[in-house]
Design goal:
Blueprint (H helix, E strand, L loop, with lengths): L4 H21 L5 H22 L3 H30 L9 E5 L3 E2 L2 E2 L1 H16 L4 E5 L10 H10 L8 E4 L5 H15 L4 E7 H13 L3 E7 L6 H16 L4
Parallel strand pairs: 1-4, 1-6, 4-5, 6-7
Antiparallel strand pairs: 2-3
Helix pairs in contact: 1-2, 2-3, 2-8, 3-7, 6-7, 7-8
């Protein structure tokens, strides 16, 4: 075995378990969390088998599984990075589309507040742009996300007449589809700037292009504590999108 391979596996296992356990302690449970924990466990298993030089077929199988997961993740990360951080608009848009996220006790979660702060900067920089706020009311939310988003922005000086609310959607696909219908209803251009977290930009952009939108992206910051698990979660969302499950 190459000398660097074992310490590299140990480091990756530690990072995977750390960024899988940390969201759990924050009450987050989703596919990205379970995927990171599984990857960390597989790496520990591979290391244990390699040290004892036992079960060579099992060790090889686990190694191939880990390698395939890492290769697939790297391949998906390339277009994700491109859309998230290298697809900013070249000129002021007519419409800024902000995608919703969880609301707690009538206030935006940290993820949503970061998206709204990013939108606020854009609205101040582009005074002619309108803003679509997209997000319905979840079963554990006291208000529609779009209404909370509008309240947040108007309290910070944005004219309510610049805000269009789409408050019926419950997932990204509905966010995009309902927002596209709203643009058509209002006779607005379909050139939009998407504001959401970087991990979310590629899937949202693919869905928006399917609805006939021309998309550029401005990503909001994501807390480092949850960024890896949400980034990994998007792999599964993109795979489902590719095979037509969403």
């Amino acid at each position: 075995m190459k000398r660097w391979l074992f310490p590299a596996a140990a480091l990756l296992a530690a990072l995977s378990l750390f960024f899988g356990i940390l969201p759990l302690l924050m009450g987050l449970r989703h596919t990205g969390v379970w995927a990171l924990l599984t990857l960390g466990g597989l790496l520990l298993l591979w290391m244990a088998l390699s040290r004892r030089e036992r079960a060579p077929r099992l060790r090889r199988g686990v190694g191939l599984l880990v390698a395939a997961a890492l290769a697939g993740g790297c391949a998906l990360s390339v277009p994700m990075v491109g859309q998230a951080f290298f697809s900013r608009p070249e000129q002021p848009p007519a419409v800024i589309l902000v995608l919703g996220a969880r609301v707690r006790d009538g206030e935006p979660s940290r993820l949503l507040a970061n998206r709204l702060d990013t939108a606020l900067e854009l609205l101040n920089a582009w005074p002619e742009a309108l803003c679509v706020l997209s997000g319905g009311q979840g079963s554990d939310e006291s208000s529609p996300e779009a209404a909370v988003m509008a309240s947040y922005l108007t309290k910070r000086g944005i004219d309510p007449d610049r805000l269009l609310l789409e408050d019926q959607s419950h997932d990204t696909q509905e966010n995009i589809r309902n927002s596209a219908a709203l643009l058509e209803q209002r006779g607005l251009p379909r050139q939009v700037v998407l504001v959401t977290d970087g991990f979310h930009q590629l899937r949202a952009s693919v869905l928006a292009r399917r609805e006939g939108m021309a998309v550029s992206s401005v990503s909001s910051p994501t807390p480092w504590t949850i960024f890896p698990s949400y980034w990994v979660r998007e792999f599964f969302g993109l795979c489902a999108l590719a095979v037509g499950l969403s």
